[in-house]
């Protein structure tokens, strides 16, 4: 039996409107054959987690370019845990200084992609690291 | 015809000879690339000659500086009379931090101010809103009340220095604060000068700082134009912006076309809604362009922009006053051309882009700092960026003569092509029923998304080069010092806001908010009510909440 198609939500937490990267990724993921939902800008972590669960996604890709990632990314993982949905993989991107990486990894963000990363590299990472979640009986 | 027949015959003879040579060369060895194109993927020919601009009409298309269609500039003496304004966009942390940065910049020879607000302020939220958590002071200055604003402009002579404010959905509120602060400094409204960005169309199209739906957003903008026309005649009430359209990944032509079509939409709305004649308000409309890395494309874009706007105002809107035809614009070098990798290279990019803006005839300029990919700039990085402008202005000799590239076969041809392609977009949007209708259909948004995606593919394939990103990559990270906004900023701002809310006159606040609400419902001009509310220390969010309540909230359709 072939595996179910991966479902991805690309989300922009916080108040910044720099969505060029997020929208390019959403399109690249769709072209790579995934099912993609894009939230649009200005989502709260609560809205993102609720959309992720409702859409039954396997991966959340967060994009933030305002500097508020230190607060917003860990909040998303925390809320997933509260909803017993911590098997949804969370990755992040945007303007994230190196010195913040460890703190984000510790908070449960699995990988961070910064500007200049080729699209292929991100897709390869997903291929290698994300499986469709078990579908509940 | 631009050239005498004899010259074109000579040109044609010389061309045949050259083409033969080229053919022979190409048989032996190809050129570096199959196809040469600008950063916007506009194809560029091997050579431009008189043949390319033979249909140019000297008076109709070029003319003289200060003469219609202003291709060569707005003023008869150009930069010889007055240099562009050095206007560095800045704002960080608290109002006090920003005020200090402003005084530093003025001491360094900056000639105008430009305000960056933090995201909660840009979106109409106070620092104590749950949505504002973690954002306070990070990408600009946090302003909640008039008291913050008065600290921001402390010891800044508002009757002398002009200030630009990059503020959109809450533009009425920040402008009201500026007016109130000026009044308290004893400066009358008709003496203050500056700009509010106040361009919501490009927010829906590109920058995504939105609050209300498009229709009421435009209504508030027309309110500011009307108020400015009557009471604040030296204020630029809209800065019609292509900058963000370009940053979102558009081509140069898209930036040009969508920005000008946005401008037309505002002019139409003010005429229809307020009954003003274009000559009453159009002289105070200003524009804001990006200067990207493709040198000639940018210069030609700016020359074409002046020409199109002059035609539009004269032919479409029947403006009579020469100033209504003038496209005055601010320019910022392209943030999206800068790289996080090898950040010192950004100084060279910015210098090139700044030079293009000057050759394009900008009225005012912001040069990005080398570290702005990462964070708000440090003092040192800002100083280098400002010095870049000063070196171009005062060492290079470039401003000695007006529009020095005019008459270049290439520059005139490219100017022409960009104008022509921009008109195609403008006519297409006209056919769709205008920019609001086009935005509802997602048209400009998707055109930009397509262009951005194409560029990313060209970067990934190596067809387009970004030094340090996909070519000449170095293993070891080259780091520059970064400015960190202390978390203390948020804590102290929260405390200030709490204190103000405790000691202000609550009755006066709710009375002025009620007055504003009823003005909104009756369709009156909101500005006088806004000024009254900020004077009573109503917060930015309290005022914006009234707008949200009356007009509703816009949701990002999330197109990609």
Structural overview:
The complex is a heterodimer of chains A (137) and B (560). Chain A contains 5 helices and 5 strands; from the N terminus they run βαβαβαβαβα. Chain A has 137 residues and is of the alpha/beta class. Chain A has one domain: Cobalamin-binding domain (Rossmann fold, 3-Layer(aba) Sandwich). Chain A has a 5-stranded parallel beta sheet, with helices on both faces. In chain A, helix 2 packs across helix 3. With 560 residues, chain B is α/β, with parallel strands linked by helices. Chain B has 2 domains: 59-461, TIM Barrel (Alpha-Beta Barrel), CATH 3.20.20.240; 488-551. Chain B is built from 23 helices and 9 strands. A 9-stranded parallel beta sheet of chain B has the order 5-4-3-2-1-9-8-7-6. The longest helix of chain B has 24 residues, at 5-28. The radius of gyration of chain B is 24 Å and the shape is globular. At the A-B interface, helix 1 and helix 3 of A face helix 5 and helix 19 of B.
Give keywords:
heterodimer; A: 137 residues; alpha/beta; Rossmann fold; 5 helices; 39% helix; B: 560 residues; 2 domains; nine-stranded parallel beta sheet; 52% helix; 7% strand
Structural topology:
The complex is a heterodimer of chains A (137) and B (560).
Chain A: E1 7-11, H1 20-31, E2 35-38, H2 45-54, E3 59-64, H3 69-82, E4 89-94, H4 101-106, E5 111-113, H5 119-129
Parallel strand pairs in A: 1-2, 1-3, 3-4, 4-5
Chain B: H1 5-28, H2 58-62, H3 78-81, E1 85-90, H4 95-107, E2 112-115, H5 119-123, H6 146-152, E3 163-165, H7 171-184, E4 194-196, H8 201-207, H9 214-231, E5 235-236, E6 238-241, H10 243-247, H11 252-274, H12 278-281, E7 285-291, H13 295-316, H14 322-325, E8 329-333, H15 345-360, E9 364-366, H16 379-394, H17 409-432, H18 435-440, H19 443-461, H20 488-503, H21 506-522, H22 527-535, H23 540-551
Parallel strand pairs in B: 1-2, 1-9, 2-3, 3-4, 4-5, 6-7, 7-8, 8-9
């Amino acid at each position: 039996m072939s595996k179910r198609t991966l479902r991805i939500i690309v989300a922009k937490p916080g108040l910044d409107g720099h969505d060029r990267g997020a929208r390019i990724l959403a399109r690249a993921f769709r072209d790579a054959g995934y099912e993609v939902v894009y939230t649009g800008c200005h989502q709260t972590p609560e809205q993102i987690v609720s959309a992720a669960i409702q859409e039954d996604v396997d991966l959340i890709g967060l994009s933030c370019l305002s500097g508020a990632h230190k607060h917003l990314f860990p909040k998303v993982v925390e809320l997933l845990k509260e909803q017993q949905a911590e098997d949804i993989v969370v990755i992040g991107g945007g303007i994230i200084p190196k010195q913040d990486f460890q703190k984000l990894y510790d908070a449960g963000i699995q990988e961070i992609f910064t500007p200049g990363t080729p699209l292929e590299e991100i897709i390869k990472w997903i291929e290698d690291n994300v499986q469709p979640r078990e579908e509940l009986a | 015809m631009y050239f005498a027949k004899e010259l074109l015959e000579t040109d044609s003879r010389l061309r045949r000879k050259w083409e033969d040579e080229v053919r022979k060369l190409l048989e032996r060895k190809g050129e570096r690339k199959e196809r040469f194109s600008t950063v916007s993927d506009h194809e560029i020919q091997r050579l431009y000659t008189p043949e390319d601009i033979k249909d140019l009409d000297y008076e109709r298309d070029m003319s003289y500086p200060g003469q219609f269609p202003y291709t060569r500039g707005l003023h008869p003496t150009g930069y010889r009379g007055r240099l562009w304004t050095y206007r560095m966009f800045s704002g960080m942390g608290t109002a006090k931090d920003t005020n200090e940065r402003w005084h530093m910049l003025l001491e360094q020879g900056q000639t105008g101010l430009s305000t960056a607000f933090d995201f909660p302020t840009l979106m109409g939220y106070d620092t104590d809103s749950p949505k504002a958590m973690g954002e306070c002071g990070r990408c600009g200055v946090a302003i909640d009340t008039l008291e913050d604003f008065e600290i921001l402009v402390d010891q800044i002579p508002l009757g002398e220095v002009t200030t630009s404010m990059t503020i959109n959905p809450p533009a009425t509120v920040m402008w009201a604060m500026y007016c109130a602060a000026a009044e308290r400094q004893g400066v009358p409204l008709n003496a203050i000068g500056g700009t509010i960005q106040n361009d919501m169309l490009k927010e829906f199209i590109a920058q995504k700082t939105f609050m209300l739906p498009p229709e009421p957003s435009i209504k508030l903008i027309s309110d500011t134009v009307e108020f400015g026309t009557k009471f604040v005649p030296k204020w630029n009430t809209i800065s019609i912006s292509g900058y963000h359209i370009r940053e979102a990944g558009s081509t140069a032509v898209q930036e040009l076309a969508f920005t000008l079509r946005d401008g037309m939409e505002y002019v139409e709305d003010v005429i229809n809604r307020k009954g003003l004649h274009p000559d009453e308000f159009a002289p105070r409309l200003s524009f804001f362009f990006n200067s990207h890395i493709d040198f000639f494309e940018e210069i030609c874009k700016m020359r074409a922009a002046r020409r199109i706007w002059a035609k539009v105002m004269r032919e479409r809107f029947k403006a009579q006053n020469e100033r209504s035809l003038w496209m005055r614009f601010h320019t910022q070098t392209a943030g999206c051309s800068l790289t996080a990798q090898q950040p010192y290279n950004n100084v060279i990019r910015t210098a090139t882009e700044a030079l293009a803006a000057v050759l394009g005839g900008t009225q005012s300029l912001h040069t990005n700092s080398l570290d702005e990919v990462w964070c708000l700039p440090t003092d040192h990085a800002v100083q280098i960026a400002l010095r870049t402008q000063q070196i171009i202005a005062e060492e290079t000799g470039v401003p000695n003569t007006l529009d020095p590239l005019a008459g270049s076969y290439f520059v005139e041809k490219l100017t022409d092509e960009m104008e022509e392609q921009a008109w195609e977009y403008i006519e297409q949007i006209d056919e769709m029923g205008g920019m609001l209708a086009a935005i509802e259909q997602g048209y400009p948004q998707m055109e930009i998304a397509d262009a951005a995606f194409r560029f990313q593919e060209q970067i990934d394939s190596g067809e387009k080069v970004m030094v340090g990103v996909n070519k000449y990559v170095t293993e070891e990270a080259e780091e520059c010092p970064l400015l960190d906004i202390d978390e203390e900023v948020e804590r102290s701002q929260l405390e200030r806001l709490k204190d103000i809310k405790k000691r202000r006159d609550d009755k006066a606040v709710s009375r002025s908010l009620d007055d504003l609400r009823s003005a909104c419902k009756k369709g009156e001009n909101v500005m006088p009510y806004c000024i009254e509310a900020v004077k009573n220390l109503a917060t930015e969010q309290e005022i914006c909440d009234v707008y949200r309540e009356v007009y509703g909230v816009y949701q990002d359709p999330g197109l990609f």
